[in-house]
C-alpha cells in the first residue's frame, strides 16, 4: 500500500483488532480458547440466567424481528454510551440507525447476521455481525446492563455467537477494532492497526494536519453533526462508522 500510494511510512493507530480462531466443535473451542475457571463462571451465569425466566438465544430473521433488536440496541447503547465517559453513541442519530438497520435487513440470510438474547419474549441483548470468507466480524452490540449485568449477559451472548459460528462452519470470530479486555478472554489475538495517508491537494494536507494535531477537531465535527440532527437539518451524505470503543465493547 505504501508503494502504491507513494507513502514513506505507516503510522500506528494505537489500537489492535482481535480475532479468535474457532475449532471444529463448540466444546473444543471452549477448551482451547477459554480458561477453565472462566468456563465454570459462564456455566454458573447461564444457570442463573435460566432461573430468571425463559432465556432464548437466536439469529433473528425477518424485518420485524431485526427492527425489534435494533430498537433494543439503541436503548441499551444510549444508556451505556451517553457521552459522560467518552463519545456518545452514534446509533442514536437517525442516519446511523437507518444505515445499520438497512445493512442488517439487506444482508439477512447472507452477509449479515443479527443475534438476540430474549428473556420471556423481550430482547435483553443483541449484536450485528458481517460474514466474510469464513469469519464473522462483530460491529455492533448492546445489552441490558442494568437488568442483567450480574449474569454477564454480554459474555453469554458472545459465547453463543461462537457456538452458532462453529455450527455454520466459520473459522474465526472477529471482534474487530478496540482493546477491550473481554476480547482476549474469548481467545482474541491482537493484530496492530496502521494508517497511511497522502494528501491530494494543499487543502487536503491542511485538513489532515488539523485532524492529526488538533484531536478536538474530531469532537467538534461530531458535535456539529449531532446539532444538525437535533435541528432537523439535512443529514450529511457521508456516514462514518462509530468509534471502536463504543462499537465493539459489549461485555
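^ Assign residues to that structure.
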Amino acid at each position: 500500500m505504501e508503494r502504491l500510494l507513494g507513502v514513506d511510512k505507516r503510522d500506528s493507530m494505537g489500537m489492535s483488532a482481535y480475532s479468535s480462531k474457532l475449532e471444529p466443535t463448540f466444546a473444543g473451542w471452549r477448551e482451547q480458547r477459554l480458561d477453565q475457571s472462566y468456563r465454570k463462571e459462564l456455566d454458573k451465569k447461564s444457570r442463573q440466567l435460566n432461573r430468571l425466566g425463559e432465556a432464548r438465544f437466536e439469529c433473528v430473521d425477518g424485518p420485524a424481528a431485526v427492527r425489534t433488536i435494533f430498537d433494543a440496541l439503541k436503548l441499551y447503547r444510549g444508556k451505556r454510551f451517553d457521552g459522560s465517559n467518552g463519545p456518545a453513541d452514534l446509533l442514536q442519530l437517525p442516519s446511523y440507525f437507518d444505515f445499520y438497520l438497512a445493512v442488517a435487513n439487506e444482508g439477512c440470510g447472507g452477509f449479515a447476521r443479527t443475534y438476540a438474547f430474549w428473556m420471556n419474549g423481550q430482547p435483553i441483548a443483541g449484536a450485528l455481525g458481517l460474514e466474510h470468507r469464513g469469519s464473522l466480524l462483530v460491529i455492533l452490540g448492546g445489552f441490558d446492563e442494568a437488568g442483567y449485568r450480574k449474569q454477564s449477559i454480554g459474555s453469554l451472548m458472545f459465547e453463543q455467537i461462537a457456538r452458532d459460528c462453529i455450527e455454520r462452519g466459520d473459522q474465526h470470530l472477529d471482534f474487530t477494532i478496540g482493546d477491550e479486555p473481554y476480547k482476549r478472554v474469548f481467545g482474541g489475538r491482537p493484530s496492530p492497526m496502521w494508517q497511511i495517508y497522502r494528501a491530494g491537494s494543499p487543502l487536503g494536507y491542511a485538513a489532515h494536519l488539523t485532524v492529526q494535531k488538533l484531536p478536538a477537531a474530531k469532537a467538534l465535527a461530531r458535535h456539529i453533526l449531532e446539532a444538525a440532527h437535533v435541528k432537523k437539518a439535512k443529514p450529511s451524505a457521508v456516514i462514518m462508522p462509530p468509534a471502536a470503543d463504543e462499537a465493539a465493547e459489549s461485555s
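Residues 233-251 have pLDDT under 50 and may be disordered.
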